[in-house]
Amino acid sequence: MNTFKMRFEKISKIDMSQGQPLKLITLFAIPLMIGNLFQMFYNMVDTMVVGKCVSTTALASVGATTPVVDLLLGLVIGLSNGLSIVIAQKVGANDKTSTKKAITNGFYLIIILSLLIMILGLRFNKNLFALIHLSQELLPGTITYSSIIFIGAIFAAVYNYESAILRAHGNSVIPLLFLILSAILNVVLDLFFVIICHMGIAGVAYATIIAELICCLLCYMYMKKKLDILDFEKKDYCFDLQCIKEHIKVGMPMAFFNHFFLLVF
């Protein structure tokens, strides 16, 4: 058991400064690629469940939300990836003070962006669906589903940021495991809310944000136990304009790249 634990910890936490670069990059990147697939799993499962258990109209309504929801949440995912670069630089420099400052100020950015996405999503989701010429028959269902998802956007944002912090410390496996667990939980909750509680489209949306919330909490508990860097002092919470500028300089281009990548593909 101890041998397995030691091997798992060795695989899950990679020292990117030691060993063959190609091997290290491959081992680190594979969980990221799998994780990107599971990020899309939520909406796909929600669509399948309402299609099987509710109606074809519900299936089309949830499916129609994909381009709008993915475009806005893509900003959060892209920003998180950019922030992980800044944090990784501080970790690599073995500068704990700067690392803590980068983590807290990056968190402020993520929260601000997720709240902005929630406000814009709730305010303009009807207009966005009009741009893709959604039929009036599907509109109530798409508005219901997308509104709940936008309200829970902060959970998706925080999870992606927690993953970014772990990746900055060389760990890309643990975020994937929590994401897989969250995806499984999403399936169970989908079935519970739709079949048992008869909540329809709203049920699968609530299932998604609850699963993401649990994923956030589990990831935080793991980080608190494994990363001593998260023992913050009062000074570490100070808003640092220079640090914010550094995060924006690196993070926002990646956020918009991810946003427009989803727009094109």
The global form is: globular
Q: Find the count of extended strands (DSSP E, 2+ residues).
A: 0
End-to-end CA span: 45 Å
**Biggest β-sheet: count, sense, barrel?**
none
The pLDDT mean sits at: 79
- Portion of residues within helices: over 70%
Structural class: mainly alpha
Fraction in beta strands: under 5%
What is the number of helices? 11
Supply Rg. 19 Å
List unreliable stretches of 5+ residues. Answer: 4-8
H/E series: HHHHHHHHHHH
Commentary on this structure:
The chain has helices at 2-12, 21-39, 41-53, 56-64, 66-92, 96-131, 139-151, 153-168, 173-196, 200-226, 241-264. The chain has 265 residues and is an all-alpha fold. Residues 4-8 have low confidence and may be disordered. The radius of gyration is 19 Å and the shape is globular.
Write the layout of secondary structure elements.
Layout: H1 2-12, H2 21-39, H3 41-53, H4 56-64, H5 66-92, H6 96-131, H7 139-151, H8 153-168, H9 173-196, H10 200-226, H11 241-264
TL;DR of this structure?
The radius of gyration is 19 Å and the shape is globular. Helices cover 83% and strands 0% of the residues.
Please supply descriptive tags for the structure shown above.
globular, mainly alpha
